[in-house]
Write a structure and sequence with these properties.
By secondary structure, the chain is of the alpha/beta class. 44% of the residues lie in helices and 14% in strands. An eight-stranded mixed β-sheet has the order 3-2-1-4-5-6-7-8, with helices on both faces. Helix 1 (13-24) crosses helix 7 and helix 3 runs parallel beside helix 4 (109-131). The longest helix is centred in the middle third of the chain and has 23 residues, at 109-131. It is globular, with a radius of gyration of 17 Å. The chain starts with a strand and ends in a 6-residue tail after the last helix. Mean pLDDT is 92; it is low at 197-210.
Length: 273
């Protein structure tokens, strides 16, 4: 049975390979890129590589929440059922030369791209995910640092790595929160680190050597998103393909509630089950 999957950050690196692997299985793939040209080009190349014409490009700059809202509306219109959302897109510690920069919406850029935009896109696509009893795979990282709820945007003592690690812990917390909300609805939600220091542009920009292949990371994403092995598995954190323990703060229910309240306020979200 053909299914539909949206992969964000799918124009290069792990996301690009993930989209190709899913297309090779004969499924419909929605390839997200930051610009229209990148998304269209990646979709066409994956079509050629896999002989699968059901590969479509969608674009949105995740540093602009209005563009996130636009892509969500387009996807919902064209694909009322989504079997899997793989939130692969993200920016690393070395983005913007490691400096603190703001998004179009005035938020710290890493925190918005890695966390706020991921939340907004997922929340807006929930109707399509519910229609298919779909799976959500949120890309986190083994790099996780305790979040200061009074300084979400790391205005104090900023560092690119600190902000990156906090944004990734926020992704894990959101995944746990959404899994709890969806537990009686049929949507499965998990967070994962596909592998540490994979051979990607993000790792290269950090000036460190790669210790794993992007292909390995992509295969782990595909496995969690498609494999019957994980039917019914939700609210978990995976590291390199196995259920693992996230940062201790991720299991603090009071902190998760407070983070979710701030997140809804920042995104002007109305929670709906």
């Amino acid at each position: 049975m053909t299914k539909t999957f949206l992969v964000t950050g799918a124009t290069d690196g792990v996301g690009r390979i993930t989209a190709r692997l899913i297309a090779e299985l004969g499924h419909e793939v929605l390839v997200h890129g930051r610009t229209a040209s990148k998304a269209t080009d990646a979709a066409k190349k994956i079509q050629q590589e896999t002989a699968n014409n059901s590969v479509h490009g969608y674009h949105a700059d995740l540093g602009d929440l209005d563009e996130v809202r636009t892509i969500a509306g387009q996807v919902l219109t064209n694909h009322p059922r989504i079997d899997g959302l793989i939130n692969n897109a993200g920016i690393g510690p070395a983005a913007a030369r490691g400096e603190r920069v703001l998004s179009t919406d005035g938020h710290e850029l890493r925190f918005q791209v890695n966390y706020l935009s991921l939340v907004l896109l997922t929340e807006l696509l929930l109707p399509a995910l519910k229609a298919a009893n779909g799976r959500v795979v949120n890309l986190a990282s083994v790099a996780q640092e305790e979040i200061d709820l009074n300084d979400l945007m790391t205005e104090k003592r900023f560092s690119g790595m600190k902000t990156y690690a906090r944004s990734k812990l926020a992704v894990v917390m959101y995944s746990f929160t959404l899994a709890e909300r969806m537990k009686n609805i049929g949507v499965m939600v998990n967070a994962m680190d596909p592998g540490s220091l994979l051979a990607t542009k993000m790792v290269s920009a950090m000036g460190v050597g790669a210790s794993g292949s992007a292909e390995d990371g992509a295969r782990r994403e595909v496995q969690l998103a498609l494999s019957p092995e994980f039917d019914g598995t939700t609210g978990k954190y995976f590291s390199e393909g196995y259920i693992d323990r996230a940062h201790a703060q991720a299991y603090d229910n009071n902190v998760r509630i407070a983070l979710w309240a701030q997140t809804k306020n920042l995104l002007n979200l109305q929670e709906a089950n």
